[in-house]
Amino acid sequence: MQKQYKSIKEVVGPLMLVEGVEGVTYNEFVEIRQANGEIRHGKVLEVNEGNAMVQLFTSAQGLKIKDSTARFVGRSLELPVSADMIGRFFDGMGRPRDGGPNVIAEARMDINGTPINPTARNYPDAFIQTGVSTIDGLNTLVRGQKLPIFSMSGLPHAQLATQIARQASVGDGEKFAVVFAAMGITNDEADFFVKEFERTGALAHSVVFLNLASDPTLERISTPRMALTAAEYLAFELDMHVLVIMTDITLYAEALREVSAARKEVPGRRGYPGYLYTDLATLYERAGCIKGKTGSITQIPILTMPEDDKTHPIPDLTGYITEGQIVLSRDLSKKGFTPPVDVLPSLSRLKDKGIGKGKTRHDHADVLNQLFAAYATGKDARELAQILGESALSNTDKLYAKFAEAFEQKFINQGFNANRTIIDTLNIGWELLRILPKTELKRIRQSNIDEFYGK
Question: In 118-163, at which residue ranges do the beta strands (DSSP E only) sit?
């Protein structure tokens, strides 16, 4: 039975203390009704000796606690889900923000999700094509994987995110959807995402959640959970392969830090709460494939590294949980290369599971390894030429330096509007490798050299 309490003791920032409660649980949804009939919402953060700490979803400004009552509804925050969500824009609380009607729910799902039993997981082993050569060719995305993008302030990660959302695809005949969540963005950024999804037609297979910087802090914390809940419904109830793109995880972590400070918790590294790792894991670990289920959830979380620092707690902890990272380069961006993916520090730990015969092409692994090795050697040769002069390079070193320049111009710098198939990407790779003599292709099987090098 739901109980109402008039024992609201105090409100500090986004937090409210309710005394003398019974049977209240962590994460329980709360309705705060004022005397004038206005209703605000919150959730339980902590219960201690009959006192409940409630975090408000909206601002506490104008809230008169003496005339207000708190009602604990006996359940966590839920998202009404339906196949009709596809093609719609929502806010961070799952409410329509496109002027359309409310979703007629086929089910209501707890936004905190249900933990997946590790023994029920299937190993990710199927290719997802993003249309971006630096990802598909060298750091392949696999269904069920968590592959974050590490960006920096001012770099075009928003354009890359919309490019992937527009171009991503799975095999023919398989149902596919994109769930896109943007947190703490400006009005201009929100307008950009809306126009891009509508202009390119990506909205036809997408569900979009947009949380503005002016929205309440708790809404920012709920946004990725709303998105992942929608993804779980599409994947495990409607048998779709779902790609979840979340940006910016750094702004999400900042919201966690703000709430932690309001609760006067002992801070961890750089002021972030000590449970940041656990909290991020509750998001990232909702990706995967489940035995007996056709659908899958793949994640591309995007974060900006404060002060371009990879050792900052947010990218550092993210790296521990996920299976690799795509790193954007400020130097490549200054040269005008788009997308400015720095392939050498980038890594997809599951790429070997999603490539090869029957998935991409039988020469993929060889081309991948040779391109990495040749580009690394070419960059070293260019740096040596800057120090000692080009005359100090051998003829082979000059070829590698030429390769590195061509690799950046043709392979990395594809632009945000080019959608390359994996065959296009591999063919460009072979075109670049022909700059080098056959004797330098030491990471490619002779059979593949015979088949592709002379074409």
Answer: 121-122, 127-128, 141-142, 149-151
**Global pTM?**
0.93
291 token code pair: 């035995």
Q: Measured between alpha carbons, how far is residue 229 from residues 155, 202, 290 in Å?
A: 29, 20, 15
CA–CA distance, 362 with 38 (Å, rounded to integer): 63
Report whether 355 contacts 426 (CB < 8 A).
no
Extract the tokens encoding 192.
């950009």
pLDDT in tens, 204-247: 999 999 999 998 888 899 999 999 999 999 999 999 999 999 99
Q: Using the CB atoms, write b or e for 52-70: b if 16+ within 10 Å.
A: bbbbbbbebeebebeebbb
Measured from the Cβ of residue 274, the count of other Cβ atoms closer than 10 Å reads: 12
Please identify which residue in the block is written with the tokens 């359940």: 75
Report the alpha-carbon angle 195-233-54, nearest 5.
85
Candidates 448, 125, 78; CA nearest to 226 is: 78
DSSP state of 69: E
Give dist(CA 207, CA 90) in Å, integer: 8
DSSP conformation letters of 336-347: T-SS-B-TTT-E
